[in-house]
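From the shared-data thread, chain only:
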Amino acid sequence: MTTERYPTSRPAVVTCGLPYANGSLHLGHLLTTLSGDALSRALDTLGQQTAFVCGSDMHGTPIAVNAHENGETPEAFAQRYHEEFADTFPRFDIEWDNYGHTHDDTNVETTREFVRSWIDNDHVYEKDIKVAWDPEAGQPLPDRYVEGTCPYCGEHARGDECDEGCQRHLEPGEIEAPTSTLTGNPAEYRTRSHEFLRLSDFQAYLREWIDRLEGTENAKNQPRQWIEGDLRDLCITRDMEWGIDYPGEGEEDLVLYVWVDAPIEYVSSSKQYTERVGADTYDWADVWHDDGEIIHVIGQDIIQHHAVFWPAMLRGAGYNEPRAIMASGFVNLKGKAFSTSRNRAIWADEYLETGFSPDFLRYYFITAGNFQSDINFTWSDLQQTTNEELVGNIGNFVYRSLLFAHRNYDGTPLADEPASDEVQGRIETAVDDFTAAINDYSLTEAATAVYELSGFGNRYIQSNEPWNLIDDDPHAGAAVIRDCVQLAKAVGVLLAPFAPEGAERIWTQLGEDGSVHDAGIDAALDAPPAEFSSPDEIFTKIEDDEIEPLAAELAAMVEESDDTADSRGTDSDDDGDFGDAPEIDTTARDRIDFETFQDLEMRVGEVEVAEPVEGADDLVRLEVDIGTETRQIVAGIKQFYDADDLPGTRVVVLANLEPAELFGVKSNGMVLAAGEEADLLTTVGDAPIGSLVR
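Structure, as tokens:
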């Protein structure tokens, strides 16, 4: 790993969390893949040698269970979804350099090489552990065949993860009151020998590595609770038939845990790309064995696997370390996470059936807010972003500029002269902003640089009124249009990672050779062609009559899924775990700029329910309506307020705080209060619930 700014002298690889071959893709699955594709394209634009690789996750208990219920072998079942994924991704302009899967020969062999390295270097040991057993079925129960109670927070949990509570990874034998999902009967624990990767061997290394890790703040901060605490070793084997066989001696009946072979697919997919294009074009070993740039784009629910397990796995096998991890929030519907089990989701093929451009979804996801924050998807928000920003700003500027240039000059006037100093300077600023944003792993800021450049173009053409100048001062009029065409070309170059189809349309209409996706960032200031044909609109507006039936269908689906929700309550990723921050003396802190302040999402809320947290001296559990949803928030105000008096109280809520858990209670936000006696902040007037504090 280097610390050079992009583009660096080393090759890079961008990966995304592997989609699980257990069902069709929905829009929630696409957030990280669309973002990873945009990052990879942006790095290419900067001149960084980059490979964008991934693969389908084919192993694990859920696939084995569902395949059995479907009357298929696990391999055939997973292969069918893998092929569906491989067909769907390109329809969203997601262009992998290689897309493999975890059951192919390359990954099987690479995984075994990793594990043999750990064994040879004495990082693996055998240990007797409790394994859930179904006495009626007469067989051991791998993680997903078991459900029960989380030993940490008391919520209902799966055998491998507290999916409905604290989100902790659970080792075999930890879940309490285990129940077999095969028969529904109580399970029992029996002793069984399994293999463990000694993560404690890497704890000192991980503590140093996390300090140099780049990417999003959640990916850098969340793992510290494991790395700096009592780091437990990782059980790397499971009692089942479907998976990659453990390569050690005498354990032929065990397979490797799915979270062993899944991230190794990143390496395997890179190998396959090199095999296809040749090491002279891209050498996977330069990235993974030497000092290349490894960037992972994942969902926030798998940070622990990528920022604790994975760097230790790489270190133990003598591989390079990740340079950056970008961890996204979730895509929600009406404040609740997509749920495939409740059919509360918008499926990838449903979006494609609308006929809307993939550009619309890509741009909407990337500009919807801070990458780490959840996106509350609505069709009307997609429409508004598309019509106001892609159509009304970017598309409008490019189309009017090229149309005016074609009608009056058959192309670019004064093409052999440079653009004005003002316009060249503004493009250079946009290029610098774009480059800085990608180096900060902020796709939102990079896309904003394009939007603002186009906004400048709209103001520039409007204030200079070339339609008047062509008669009064023909040369001045031609110079203005020359500037506008240069701005349009720069917009196309910088827009390419975020709206590939629209950017290519701009490039083609300018009469440029090749593809905009092969153009480097310097092309933004290269002179445009002297001649080009009559342009067409770059983007098409989304009409109300297209959105209304989709919005109605979505509302009915959400209502139905809420009505049929099971007694266990929320989905695994419905609520984040947010907690109260310590009191801060602001005079002791450095000032922040306005952009940093804008990242804070503070909303007016109203307390609906308040009750003390059992066992805590100062905590109260609140349910607060913040307009878009009702949040559960834990606040340290018990000694200052009677809980019975709090319902109906208007408060100010910090809604995009990192998750936490207090006394086993999930908290999703922070109620703001002032002073030693926790004086709750509110508004002087009657600001509507959900209003943003600005």
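Residues 565-590 have pLDDT under 50 and may be disordered.
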